[in-house]
Write a sequence for this structure.
């Protein structure tokens, strides 16, 4: 490539092209990859509630932001924040109440069993549980459960490999009890690998703030997570870079 008064492509031109490339490189990140998305359903359950206090409360969070609040036994799930308001009129909202109600009942039964077998000297036993599912930028979703009892004994259940981890390690009796409970294992696996992943999909479709790019509503529906189609910036950025370098070369050469 040559221009009047120029002998060809110079070393200075190459340097300028390189600098512009590194300046615009962040713009050319691969399009269509999903931002990490996480959903937490946090349970607080007690074996013996005080008068006027609920025995079970559940708070939902998306990427750390609250979007629902539910008291077990109530007929209504309370939406919180922009995401909760967008989801409350969808079929997803009804499934939340039914599933969370069932989970609260089953976890309280297990709490009472644990109290009778392990925490026999405790007047009351509390459980803080969290159902977590996270989808990474690679599109893979992982589900798990975390529990804490009386803020002393904590345990993690990985749904993919059905493995319990108990802290402190001395809680071996507790771990054996959990490992031998086939019904509890099925419940935790089903909700972490089934329900929670389905909820993530609904949240991605209805809550704009968790999506990677701003897509018109008419084109967003029916698009799978992480596969939104858009014109990639790199389809036009390199011709622009080349034009900039040519102009700069001409201007510098004229002086």
């Amino acid at each position: 490539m040559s221009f009047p008064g120029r002998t060809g492509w110079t070393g200075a031109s190459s340097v300028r092209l390189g600098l512009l490339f590194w300046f615009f490189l962040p713009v050319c990140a691969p399009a269509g990859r999903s931002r990490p998305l996480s959903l937490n359903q946090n349970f607080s359950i007690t074996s013996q509630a005080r008068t006027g206090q609920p025995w079970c409360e559940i708070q939902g969070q998306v990427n750390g932001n609250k979007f629902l609040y539910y008291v077990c036994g109530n007929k209504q799930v309370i939406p919180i924040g922009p995401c909760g308001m967008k989801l409350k009129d969808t079929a997803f909202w009804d499934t939340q109440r039914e599933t969370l109600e069932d989970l609260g009942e089953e976890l309280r039964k297990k709490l009472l069993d644990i109290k009778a077998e392990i925490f026999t000297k405790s007047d009351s036993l509390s459980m803080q549980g969290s159902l977590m599912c996270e989808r990474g930028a690679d599109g893979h979703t992982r589900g798990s459960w975390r529990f804490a009892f009386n803020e002393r004994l904590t345990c993690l259940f990985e749904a993919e490999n059905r493995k319990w981890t108990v802290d402190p390690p001395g809680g071996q009796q507790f771990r054996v009890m959990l490992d031998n409970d086939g019904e509890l294992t099925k419940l935790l696996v089903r909700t972490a690998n089934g329900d929670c992943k389905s909820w993530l999909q609904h949240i991605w479709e209805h809550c704009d703030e968790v999506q990677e790019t701003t897509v018109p509503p008419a084109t967003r529906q029916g698009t799978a997570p992480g596969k939104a189609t858009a014109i990639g910036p790199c389809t036009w950025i390199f011709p622009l870079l080349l034009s900039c370098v040519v102009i700069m070369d001409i201007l510098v050469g004229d002086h």
